[in-house]
Structures are given as structure tokens and as C-alpha cells.
Amino acid sequence: MKAQFRSALLVAAVAAMATGCRSPKGGEGADFDPLNPEDVSLDGGAGLFAPGEGMLPGGRFDQLPPVATPPGVQPVYFAYNDSSVPASEAGKIGVVAAFLAQNPGVVLVVEGNCDERGTNEYNMSLGEYRAQAVRDALGAEGVDGARVQTVSYGEERPANPGHDEMAWRANRRADFAFYQGR
Amino acid sequence: MNFDRLLFFRAALPALVAAAALFSAATPVTASAATPIVVSGVADSAGKQTVSFAALRTDKSAAAETFASVLRNDLSLSGWFIPTDRPEASVKLAGSVRAAAGGGAAWSVEALWRGSARKTWARAATAAEVRAAAHAVADSMVEEIAGKRPMAQSHILFVGKRAGATDIYECDADGANLRRITTDGKLCLSPNWNPRSDSFLYTSWISGAPAVYQVDLANRKRAVVSSFPGMNHGAVKSPRDGRAAVVLSLTGSVELYLLDVGSRRIADRLTRSRNASEASPAWSPDGRTLAYTSDSGGVPRVYAMDVATRVPRRLVWAPDIRESVSPEFSCTGKLTFCGRSAGRYRIYVTDPARDPRTTPPEAISPADGADYEDPSWAPDGRHVVCTRTSGYHRSLVVLDSLGDPPRELFRVAGEWYLPSWSDNAIRRN
């Protein structure tokens, strides 16, 4: 009885919160609306830190000059909750390995990504394992591991912002970013 | 539309938004005040006292009204008081609050309770200090009159995403004073307060690759503390020795490490779980136990290890909780975590000192179809702030482990998630 009453209170409270939610679609990338009274300018744009203060010093490939992604290079897609490179995607690894063989000054960052299902922290690990799996597959094709770095974005950088099976399939991927090493 | 009024409204917004959020969230509490407030399980320990504001006079100046309304709201949010305008109450406030020089306020507030107990709070504050001063009086009343741990002077850190730009933000425990800490606009995650709540650690991609940064709020400094190849995640400082637990993938496997923050060197490796991932470390109050998530058993589950022996034990056994993640200890050693049950993420509370096989965790988030994640304890050891996701929109909600209804922390356009609640004493100087 008490538990039931408590549940009723909780539901009432949350209903009250929900009715106030101004954008039912809400969500990622919602445009800033200067005429909406809820879109307050929080601090006039001045935070405690200038952008980039305390930034990581060098050593990362992604701070080198970018190299345009060559034609034919495609993201590697993965099965749900799986970090192994599917056999059907092996050809894409070969294309990247061939490009690196022809361009010995170019280095590569493999970016691992996930769909939105599961927790953020778990997806961060899964993205890392996907990027590592691609790096290992490149190694098997003869690419020097020192030319490949990995980064995981977890579920934070979807290629498709949707929330259905098609979007999820597009988001379970490893992207290739090339840079001029020397 | 009267444009002048609109402009005025916008100028006054930070306060209004906070007030609106509080009032709307507080509505169910008021509604239920007509019937007795019912709390679950631990009803007796949750006994509330009415506190009368009938004899506390204000001169209607803006600062005096702010002081009184912040105090009143804090007492309500503490969970231990029911403010009322009726003269009859368990606790009676008397005295006055009036305007002081420069838009500030001066007050003398006397509380009478249990027949003969009395205490007076008297001070003046500048306009900029009025809210903080009211929080301090509220906390003192919670300690002196209710005999409970306070939280009104604490702050909450979290990630905010507005117009596509992601940064670390902070607000007061009552949801007011929302402010931005970083201005990078880049992907960032997992802000965690350091033990003294004068600084925090978080992960940011501002350099391209993820790295852990330490932000010193008092001195307005930021420095890299962990930038190993691969992941640098979930860093949280030990209350014992200032070393941080952190998730790294530098060997290829995602594992927990101990980081010496001062020298930025790895002090130790805590887990060895090939083909599994560890995440979200959290220290016990004495710094001897580390709770964390691992999927070494097939699905993500919460474990705790004695840091001296490295022996892990599973903390969640309830068969209906298929996954358990994001543990955090309260100041009294209770554990909150996020569990997946019947397809939804819920917030649970449990006592890790009891046998987890016979003591099922208690769900404290409502079953309303939304997902509740990333719990963090208030310094009162009673309330928990978490992320609520509904319709792909994320906001911050404060839950009560003793059964009061949840409240939305604030309502401002944007995505708000991954909160971390500070100690109650914020040291900034």
C-alpha cells in the first residue's frame, strides 16, 4: 500500500517534469533559439578557460597536416556488440594497406565508433577494441604498427543521427583519418 | 508581445529559470502535503518537521526576498523540513530580513524548536553573496535542528551540450547558478570531483585524442594528467593518497590503473582481464575499496576490490538486474549504481556491507519509461543526482533514497548528463 502510494507520487512528479519539456524531439544538435526564454546565455560566452588551455602537447598524428581520404577507402562496419572485423569487410582493410604501402610518409588514425545502445562507458571500450582490431588487421597486411594510432569516440559521434536499425548499422564502424607524417 | 517585458524577462532569466524549475518540480510535494507525506521502507527515519515562516518578516526588498526564498527552498529540498506559512509548526522561525547597502541583505533569524531549543543566525551579505549565505543558514539548520548531514552549499558538475558544443558546466545544489566551466566546445566526459571539491578530473578530446585533465577551480588552471595511447577515462582521485584510478588501454586491453597524478606516472595496474573491459572506478570513503564495472563475466557488472589485495567481489546478484554499471559510494558507505532491468536503466541503492545475495538493492528511480543513469551521491548521503533520458533528451534529476518525489535539477535548453556531486564545503580560496 505504501509502496503503491509512493509510486503514484513518483509518477505524478515525473509527469510534472515531462509536461515542461519544451522540445519533445529534444536531443542532439537542437538549434540554439535566441527568442526562446529557456535559451539563456549562461555566462556571456566567457568560461573559466580559454579554448584549448592546458591542451595536450604533441605526439599525436591527428595534430599533423591531414591527407585527403583516397578514393576507395570506406569505413569498416561491425556486427552488434562485436569488435572483430567481419570477413565481409576484409577487402576494405586491403585498400587501406595498399594506400599506405604506396605512400610511406602517410600515417593513420583509426577511429572506433559504436551505436547508441548500451552505456557510454561500455561503448567507449568497444570503440577502442574495434579500432585496435582494424589496426591488427592492417598489421596482418604488412602495415607497420608504428604508423597506426587508435582513438575511440564510443557512441558520441554517430554517422547517422537516427535511432533505428539502419542508423545503428551505419554507426558501428571504424573510420580512417590519414595524416602527413613526414 | 510586449518586447520590453520580454527583454526584462530575459535579463532576469537565470534566477527565473531556476525558480521555475524548482516550483514546477516542487508541485507534487505541495500537492501531497494535503495528505500525509508517505515515504517508503525507511519511513520512520525520514520523519519531516514543519517549519513556520509566519513570523519571519522581510522588507520586500529583492535581496531580502531572495534570502528568504532560497532558505525556504533549501529546507524543503533537504528532505527534513516542510516549510509552511501557518504559525503552528514543529520549528518556528522569527526575526527579520531587510535590505542592506549595495543591494545586499541583513538578517537576524531565530529558530525555536522542541519547546526550549533556540538558535539565532545573524549576518549581512552583499548582493552577490546572499544566495550562498542563505545556503549556509539552511545547512546550519539541517545540522542543528534535524541533526542531519547538509547539502545546500554543495555544487554539481556535469557535461552540457548546447547548440552542438559540449563543455563542462556547474550549478548549485538547488539547480541555480548554472555556469560554464570550459569553453572548448569539444567532446568531453565524466567530470569527477577531487576529494576536497576544489578541483576535478575529466576526459576531453580537445587535442584530438582523449586525455584526462585536472581543473583547479581556485587557481583557474588546467593541466593534462593522463594522456597515454588509447583510452584515458573515468579518472577519479582517491580520498586517501591523491592517486587516481583511471581506465587505460595502453596494452591493448582496457584495464584499471592507479595513476600518480603529481608525476603523471602509472603507479600500478589493478586489473588483468584479457578480452574484457573495466570502467567507472569509484572509491569508498576510506579509500581502501574500489568499486568498478567489468564485463569479464559476460555482461557489465559492478564489483568491488580491496585495493591492497586486488581481490574482486561481485556486489549485485539480483536476478532481475541483468547489467549493473556506474557505482558510487556515499559518505556513509552506501552504494548507488545504475542497473538494467526489464529493458530500462534504473538507479539502485544498496548497502555493500550486507550480503548482496540476500539483500536485494532498492530501486529509487521511478518506473516511468525513461532511463536513469550515471548516479552520484549528494554529500547528505540521502539524495542522488542522475541523468534522465526520455525521447532521446537528457536532463539531470535529483532522486531521494528515502522516497520523496524526484525533482528536475533545472530546465534549460540543451543536453545535460554525467553529473558529479561535490562535498558540502567548497573551497575556492
Report on this model:
The complex is a heterodimer of chains A (182) and B (429). Chain A is an alpha+beta fold and 182 residues long. Chain A has a domain at 61-180: OmpA-like domain (60s Ribosomal Protein L30, Chain: A, 2-Layer Sandwich), CATH 3.30.1330. Helix content of chain A is 32%, strand content 15%. In chain A, strands 1, 2, 3, 4 and 5 form a five-stranded mixed β-sheet that branches. Chain B has 429 residues and is mainly β. Chain B has two domains: 39-146, 3-Layer(aba) Sandwich (Rossmann fold); 155-421, Neuraminidase (6 Propeller), CATH 2.120.10.30. In chain B, 15% of the residues lie in helices and 43% in strands. Chain B is built from four helices and 29 strands. Chain B has helices at residues 3-11, 13-33, 62-78, 130-146; strands at residues 49-58, 81-84, 91-100, 104-113, 117-125, 155-162, 165-172, 179-180, 188-193, 199-204, 211-216, 221-226, 232-237, 244-248, 255-260, 265-269, 278-283, 289-294, 301-306, 312-314, 323-329, 335-341, 344-350, 362-363, 371-377, 383-390, 393-400, 407-408, 415-421. In chain B, the strands form seven sheets. A five-stranded mixed β-sheet of chain B has the order 2-1-3-4-5, with helices on one face. In chain B, strand 9 (188-193) and strand 10 (199-204) form a beta hairpin. In chain B, helix 3 (62-78) packs parallel to helix 4. Chain B starts with a helix and ends in an 8-residue tail after the last strand. Residues 1-45 of chain B have low confidence and may be disordered. At the A-B interface, helix 1, helix 3 and strand 4 of A face helix 1, helix 2, strand 8, strand 11 and strand 12 of B.
Key phrases:
heterodimer; A: alpha+beta; 60s Ribosomal Protein L30, Chain: A; five-stranded mixed sheet; 4 helices; globular; disordered N terminus; B: 429 residues; mainly beta; Rossmann fold; Neuraminidase; 2 domains; four-stranded antiparallel sheet
